[in-house]
Please model this.
Amino acid sequence: MELMELYRQNTLLPRIVKDFRHQAEELAQLNQAYAIMLTEQGLLSREDGQTIHRGIAAVLAEMTEADLDPIKMDLFFNFDSALKARIGADTAGRLHLGRSRNDTYHALFRMDMRRAIGEIFAELLETGQLLSEKARDYADAIIPYYTYGQPAQPGTWGHYLLDVYENLLRDMRRLRAAYANVNRSPMGAAACTGTLFPIDRRRLAELLGFDGVVEHSLDAVGSTDHFLETESSFAIVNATLNKTACDMMFLSSAECGVLSFDRSICSGSSIMPQKKNSTVIERLRSMTAEYPGYLISTFLSAGGVTMFPCKDNHEHLFMFWDHHAVLLAELQLLRLALERSTIARDAARERVLDGFTTAAAMAENLARETSIPFTRMHDVVVEMVTDLHKSGRLRPENMTGALMDRAAEKVLGHPLGLTDDDIRRRMDPAESLK
Model:
């Protein structure tokens, strides 16, 4: 196969096919809207407008991937060629008054992006709803919280899920802001400086569902910052999902044992009979590794080039829908993991106690009750824990009133007079949370 044919088959055709799958309907809508605007402006006769409308509808209904010809370079010319074949070159040619592939494609890209934002937004809403429901279900399910990888304080699984929920709320606010910049029409910029034909840009924007127009003609066909903003917002959603998946993997590990996944979303081993692998959440964690690389390639292809239209500003769009599909799947996997997981409450309580996670609350309560400065009471509790650690007795049940009195004598110069029951009450995770 000669090099030109390789170029057509390996480079052009895959892009044309992908554009056809994701933009054919939008291209037909754009063409229909453009014909309406031209007719209203007196640039196209009503008869020609009706012929064009019927031709566009027929081409959309009948064109298949098998009809796509890489010799025609892109979807725009493939569609245009099919329309000319159906209604005649002269009539079809009247549709192209005052426009270029540049403003046409940038309008299609923006229509793509606003649809993608809407789809991600819908998944975020559904995920947020499930998170709020699970947060209510597990409002009292005590688990250990960690700071810098070490047991820190008691919390609840419901409180943790609301943290994820708050992150997703901010993701939605970012997407709303991105949508406002995306949903503006570049049509009328033509190649880059506009057209002498008296087209109505604002009417066209209205017909296509845009909230307004991109005022500057070169900006309309040369800028990509709205795309970078959208992809950055998607990448932040991805980062939230990555952190959540990492936490759920750790909490479900044998070493932690706080979170338990239903076997329907787990897998076994081909050699180790005892294995129960948290497959779905592990899959989510691994999938989130893809997006940062795509984001970097997006910025590289959209920067370091020119403010004028160029192919570099289209290259990252080739992979757009693939990564969009991955992000949709990630949100769905998180919901599946949330639906089919439970907190092992007894095991979680043991982890809370074993990690001495109520120590901070104990120190705060004692400082409040005795009016001793918190830093001094903090040192008393540190002395207790250090004493137990040195003697190899670092267990919650070994924290006694007598041990605290020895620590207080050393730090404060006098005992505190707490009983073993007082200590156990202060060590209780539920009391600590109150």
Residues 102-345 form a domain with the Fumarase C; Chain A, domain 2 fold (CATH 1.20.200.10). The chain has a mean pLDDT of 94. The chain has three domains: 3-97, 102-345, 358-433.
